[in-house]
Design brief:
heterodimer, A: 756 residues, alpha+beta, Aldehyde Oxidoreductase, domain 3, Aldehyde Oxidoreductase, domain 4, 4 domains, 7-stranded mixed sheet, 5-stranded mixed sheet, 19 helices, 28 strands, globular, B: 159 residues, Ubiquitin-like (UB roll), DNA polymerase, domain 1, 5 helices, 33% helix, 16% strand
């Protein structure tokens, strides 16, 4: 008696859109409280140095400046802890809310000014006199480590992943392919800068922080711990969030400062970041250098991969701790059989902005590295780039496929996938052979054109749990209360579609609550493409329970069996026969109400996979790259809302192109950041984006949840650097030319010069 | 910098008499002094365009204009686009074509596109792309924004 699918799988309009289109959004800067003070952060202008004095007297003399804080004022607050992959040996490298004696990057918070007005606060920070004695600056994570403090150097730890007998693989090798590859420093850079507004309700003894995002419950628990409070006496509230991409919503020094100040001054404290601050203070990501070797047999099959890499984490270990390098090491093998594997990642600190995750963390980097390696194997053996991949792909019959090591507290077991089928689909859609012929003709006519192909395995749906409570009001209104967060990806619509499908109500009438710690006691938030997978399944489970409860109660009232009833458009009806019906809300009006709660637990991630094809043209005069055609195939098991899935893919792809061609945080030799505005940090515009042909497939539903969902948030970005690099090689007819991202015009021109 | 000047900003047909410092940006005045927070601040460098509003018929970066320069001028913001419950064709097209995700850049894109199309309804696709390339979006990859604006352009021309 399963009803036909009515909501899942349809490109329905988003429930989120109307307020956002009419100017009714509530982003962080839109939140104000009467009597609030404005915080402005004094940041280090020196990349590495010893603070000898801070003089705030001139700032304090300005009328309307209420206080200036330095480290002494926050010395009782512990440094910010680790949310993921928190190895204990990394703890000495955590960041304090305000610098303690030493500054380690330009942009590090040194002091905080609290004033009546934001303009005044900005005037005041210019009057805080800093005396900083410069120390030696370290900018290259692959060079020899230097001192971090008197006890430690800048190599924080080495992480290792291993499977098989790597030495035997290299002894047995027919040939060895070796590369040295670098990925540039770039990051998520959401259009809304960060912001945090804290206030302390003395009467209730509750500390509130507004402007939360991504992981409100974790941040709530951690703030409570840091301030010695109970979790119930700290509440976080997420409004609209102007983009996340991994970096927004993590706990930062500024969040701690506004909370501490709200408690100390008993005043609402508002902090809104400006763009320059964002570009030097919010998490950077990606920067790695990989020295990788592959042992292959005579047919180009991989026998083993040995990789040593250097991860530049900037000045401190922030909330992600070892997450990015751990994922890099763990996800490098991708869709290929690698019988023996060893990765050693040096997690190094430099005098640059600290790092965290950015959409597809570790995978954007190592997909570039791995696919460069496969291209190099093709070049070494003279085997075609497609054929070499086909020979090495993990077969569908090998699923589920274990890599023999783990990441993020889970064993890596690819749950399902038909990689060869997806490859064929994409190559057919691209008409790859015809594309090759046409490009060869154009090159013969003098054009610098080429095509690239790259494959990847993504990970998504990180547990360990998600909890959902569905409540029906006597009016019939349905509320889905979750512990996840919305960063613009369409959470409300997707979860409403899932709830509606199971419950038998219209999705448009469902309100999805997220990011409010006072509405549900625990939650994991939104990261790692986890929401649709984890919270989607929890929503389904809660909806099933609610449906059973409702039908059971209705059966008694309607003097029939529950099996003879159905819920259609929010009305409980007799299946197949006309007759009296009853609105769902009527059951909610009973004293016991109508609600259900469910928790979905999962100890394994789910692994979507995909492939990209890009065709591009190089401009020999300017060093510019024009994308002529771009195709994406991505298997996500089951799409809840294909329109939103495509939106995720195309949006991610634009960011991927940014990291491949344009975006890079550069530093002068003294550690001064050079990418401090949107005029220096170049994100793609509508002009740089080609039309994207997207193929979303559902060949390999995940066996780990009911609908087979896999996360769709990251496959648009993962292999962009890899595919673009391959296409540029092809256009130059110079295999292996691209060894560094981004391929900026200067670098491309250098490659062209090197060729002649 | 604390001397204030009294100015009148006419926002979506309603007059706001406010006292501002000469250095106060138009976007801060619109948001903080007039309470219209639909206009967003993305960079304060005039690059991202999130703060785009229409001033006397022309799209303007309100972070690059001082409030005093807008004294007496007619300003339109995203709050004034819809007619009651009925969305402006540009808003409707953004919804229909999934032209927004987080929605932070959206008001700027809406005002940019509406401002340009009202002045130049028959703008070529290529020129329109140039116009849209003057604002930044980090979520959508622009494809759906371009589709939405082209669809709304047709609608606004009465086709």
């Amino acid at each position: 008696m399963t009803a036909p699918a009515k909501f899942i799988g349809r490109s329905l309009p988003r429930l989120e859109d109307r307020p956002l289109l009419t100017g009714q959004g509530r982003f962080a800067a839109d939140i104000s409280f009467p009597g609030q003070w404005h915080m402005r952060v004094v940041r280090s202008p020196i990349a590495h140095g010893k603070i000898t004095s801070i003089n705030a007297s001139a700032a304090l003399a300005l009328p309307g400046v209420h206080a200036v804080w330095t480290h002494d004022d926050v010395a009782h607050i512990p440094p910010i802890g680790f949310r993921l992959t928190g190895l204990t040996e990394l703890e000495p490298y955590r960041q304090c809310a305000l610098a303690r004696g030493t500054v380690r990057y330009v942009g590090e918070p040194v002091a905080a000014v609290f004033a009546a007005d934001p303009y005044l606060a900005e005037d005041a920070i210019d009057l805080v006199a800093l005396d900083i004695e410069p120390l030696v600056v370290i900018l290259d994570a692959a060079a020899a480590p230097g001192p971090f403090d008197e006890h430690r150097n800048t190599e924080t730890t080495i992480i290792e992943k291993k499977s098989g007998d790597i030495d035997a693989a290299f002894r047995a090798a027919h040939a060895i392919v070796e590369l040295d590859l670098s990925i540039g420093r770039h990051s998520g850079v959401p259009l809304e800068t960060r912001g945090a507004i804290a206030r302390y309700d003395e009467r209730k003894d509750v500390l509130e922080m507004h402007g939360a995002a991504k992981v409100p419950h974790w941040n709530r628990d951690r703030l409570a711990m840091m301030f010695g409070r109970t979790p119930e006496s700290v509440q976080l509230y997420e409004g609209h969030v102007g983009g996340g991409f991994g970096i927004r919503g993590e706990m930062y020094p500024e969040d701690v400062l506004v909370c501490a100040a709200a408690l100390a001054f008993k005043r609402p404290i508002k902090w809104i970041e400006d763009r320059r601050e964002h570009l030097i203070a919010a998490n950077h990501s990606r920067q790695q250098r990989h020295k990788i070797r592959a042992a292959i047999d005579k047919d180009g099959r991989i026998l083993g991969i040995d990789n040593e890499f250097f991860h530049d984490n900037g000045a401190y270990m922030r909330t992600h701790a070892a997450t990015v390098p751990d994922l890099a090491a763990a996800m490098l093998p991708g869709p290929y059989r690698v019988p023996a594997y060893r990765a050693r990642g040096h997690i190094r600190l430099t005098n640059k902005t600290p790092c965290g995750t950015y959409r597809s963390p570790g995978r954007y980097e190592t997909t570039f590295v791995r696919e460069r390696l496969i291209d190099a194997i093709a070049a070494k053996t003279g085997i075609d780039v497609i054929e070499i991949r086909r020979r090495n792909l993990i077969a569908k019959s090998a699923m589920p496929y274990s890599l023999g090591f783990g990441t993020l507290g889970t064993d890596i077991v690819y749950d399902s996938g038909d990689y060869a089928k997806l490859m064929d689909r994409l190559l057919t859609a691209a008409d790859w052979p015809a594309m090759q012929r046409t490009l060869a003709q154009r090159r013969a006519a003098g054009e610098k054109v080429g095509a690239g192909y790259a494959m990847f395995v993504e990970k998504s749906g990180l547990g360990p749990f998600d909890k959902v409570r569905i409540e029906v009001a006597p009016s019939g209104a349905v509320e889905v209360v979750t512990g996840v967060a919305s960063i613009g990806q369409g959470v409300e619509t997707a979860l409403a579609q899932i709830a509606a499908e199971t419950l038998g109500v219209d999705y448009a009438g469902i309100k999805v609550v997220h990011g409010q710690t006072d509405r549900i006691d625990k939650g994991m938030g939104a990261f790692a493409s986890r929401v649709t997978v984890m919270c989607g399944e929890a929503t389904r489970m809660a909806a099933v329970k609610l449906r059973e409860t409702a039908l059971g109660a209705a059966a008694e009232l309607m003097q029939t069996s529950a099996g003879a009833l159905d819920i259609v458009d929010g009305e409980i009806v007799r299946t197949g026969t006309p007759g009296p019906s009853m609105p769902l809300g009527a059951l909610a009006a009973r004293p016991e109400g109508l609600s259900a709660e469910a928790e979905f637990k999962s100890s394994h991630m789910v692994y979507p996979y995909g492939a990209h094809v890009v065709q591009l043209k190089l401009d020999g005069d300017t060093g510019g790259v024009a994308i002529e055609r771009y195709l994406v195939a991505f298997d996500i098991g089951k799409a809840v809302n294909p329109m939103l899935v495509e939106g995720q893919i195309v949006g991610g792809l634009a960011q991927g192109l940014g990291g491949a061609l344009y975006e890079e945080f550069l530093y002068a030799e003294n550690g001064e950041p050079l990418s401090v505005s949107f005029a220096d940090y170049l994100m793609p515009t509508a002009r740089e984006m080609p039309g994207i042909e997207v193929i979303v497939t559902e060949d390999a539903p995940s066996p780990l949840n009911t609908y087979g969902f896999k996360g769709a948030g990251e496959g648009g970005i993962t292999p962009v650097g890899a595919a673009v690099a391959s296409a540029i090689d092809d256009a130059l007819q110079q295999p292996g030319a691209v060894a560094q991202l981004p391929v900026t015009p200067q670098r491309l021109k250098a490659l062209m010069r090197a060729r002649h | 910098m604390t001397e204030r000047t009294d100015i009148t900003l006419t926002i979506n047909g309603r007059e706001h008499v406010i006292g501002v410092e000469p250095r106060r940006t138009l976007v801060d005045a619109i948001r903080e002094d007039c309470g219209q927070t639909g206009t967003h601040i993305g960079c304060e460098h005039g690059i991202c365009g999130a703060c785009t509003v229409i001033v006397d018929g022309e799209p303007v970066r309100s972070c690059l204009m001082f409030a005093v320069q807008a004294d007496g001028k007619k300003i339109r913001t995203v709050e004034g686009l819809a007619a009651g419950d009925k969305l402006h064709p540009m808003q409707q097209a953004f919804m229909d074509h999934h032209g927004l995700q987080c929605g932070f850049c959206t008001p700027g894109f809406l005002m940019l596109a509406v401002g340009v199309l009202e002045r130049e309804p028959d703008i070529s696709d290529d020129d329109l792309l140039d116009v849209l390339a003057s604002n930044l979006c980090r979520c959508t990859g622009y494809q759906n924004i371009i589709k939405a604006v082209r669809a709304a352009a047709k609608e606004m021309r009465g086709q």
